[in-house]
Amino acid sequence: MVQLESGICSCSQSFFCTCHLYVYHFIGENKTWDEAQKYCREKYTDLATVSNMTDMERLRKSTETLTEAWIGLHSYPENNNRRWYWSLPGLEFKETQTRWDSGEPNDVGGKENCLVMNNQKWSDFPCNDKHQFICYMETKQSNESFHLIIYTLTWPQAQRYCRVNHTDLVSGLDQLDDNSLKSGSDVWIGVFRDTWRWSDGRNFSFRNWEYVEDLVDGQSDKTCASGQLTDSFVTKTCPTDKLILINESKTWVEALNYCREKHYDLVSITNLHQQRWVQERIKEASTEFVWLGLRYTCTLDFWFWVSDEVVSYTNWASGVQCDDCDMSAVMEREGRNQWFKKPDNETFNFICSEI
Predict the structure, then answer these.
(1) Which segments constitute the C-type lectin domain (predicted)?
(2) pTM exceeds 0.70 for this model
């Protein structure tokens, strides 16, 4: 399994640059983290950002050498800037939507950066404590199932178990409100906090630490992350980011024409990974919904992507009837980032894609 470990930034080692969402460049030169960050920003986009296990596999495939290499994850623990995250990538943790027990969080045992739940109430605990835990499984039919694992593990071990055997630790209030999760004992859930940030400023919560200690603030002035990686090395000439949020309100046809004139097309979403990248982009939108490149044709009675991609993945909100004329798809900026249908003549921000 590919895992991340913390390192001191003054060490010199190889590193990964990223140039857009799906391409990584392995740089076989030994540099400090700061030198590697400067190099990537000058020649590509930035040090590599990793949003989920699929990205970890892409990193593995970008080098033929068994090595450790810098990625764009760094920490400034002296600033006391710990932030809470959901374990499941793509979910935004909101301080206004929490279930803390009375007096929590309290760091009573020192740095307590992981959460247990008991009867829907949350308490912070040291991540190296051992508890039972709840895994979440997403099926191909977009159904959800939950699995209480009765043997005890540390929080990182529990997260790793869930990611290998299911999808992730149970994450998000929608999942935690399920009646089957009203356990009367302490169980780990998918919430943690740390001081780590991605170099390119993205708010991805994905971590894959090798050691429990990496979820506790380090002692150095600045700490950086590297990956233990293997497999093939690929080099390409890289463009900039492939998804562009347009903060202008246009009808669906106007948005389509804009994207085709200035970029490539309105965005298509054909899998969960792409869904998570788009929902990260639309957080900065100025409208409640954002147009997608998905439209309904009355003549042929089906939905289609304007890019001619097959409609194999969907994320419709429950109860949406999808058979009206002059309708196109939008993604909601907040909530679960689900899809809704809207009349073509309404105006929203939109996402363009590059080739």
Answers:
(1) 24-136, 131-238, 248-353
(2) no
